[in-house]
Amino acid sequence: MSDGRNVIYCYDGTFDGLMCCVFESFEQREIPSEISIGEPCQLSLSDIRFIETIAEKSERVTAAIPKKISWDALDLVRKMFLSCAEDKDLTILIFLHKGFRAGAKIMQMLADDTVNSINKAVFHCTHEAHLLTGFIRFSDYNGYLAAVIEPKNKVIPLLASHFTDRFRNEDFLIYDKTHRMALIYYSHKAEIAENIDFELPPASAEEERYRELWKSFYKTIGIKERFNPRCRMNLMPKRFWANMTEMRDELNIRDESTNRIAEKCLTTIKDNSV
Predict the structure, then answer these.
(1) The pTM is what?
(2) Alpha carbon distance 4, 24 (integer Å)
């Protein structure tokens, strides 16, 4: 099999498109040097090959994974595709090449670099999804619940079953601002929309009152003597705070304090230079 050092695969960025890249790789008996979404960002001397997304090819590869490896392998590949790991597409392709040769035992080959990389990326992705099941804060907009998140991974598909089961009698929307994806649940039907831009309208006066009540509740249940900022930061990373009602004010206070310190430092530097 050729190592494909002079070939770059380009595809449309969908999971079916990636499975077509895998099909092409096996058909041509080569492993590309890179897999890119759309055209490569940098000029390259390699041969650039655009892989068309064909449902029949994608279905053949997807069906072969549980047959020749295992259902767990298919689940792992799907979750890896949702991760923010660098070169995840090429890693998936290499993993499938190894998996189709080794069979189900590939899942136990934890010392293998490819398997190890996938497991780490999938853990990061699923762990972030797990955290967001508790950190998402909904607001009411004329009877509809809406929330905004900014995750590193594409966690919307992993969050869908949790929230549709928990709020099955509500209409709600969760918007992933980072990846421009949204989970829309309306009339007991769930849909994931991609490549959309969305901005929440201003909160109503009643919603603002509920937010203040929630902030008051958060402050009241806290035990002052047991306050541990470092522990809280570990369990609730700061990158989630901007979209959490009870933490937003504290984040703004910290940012304003940092700005005041920075301004004071700049003033001191200017005075000393004079």
Answers:
(1) 0.84
(2) 12
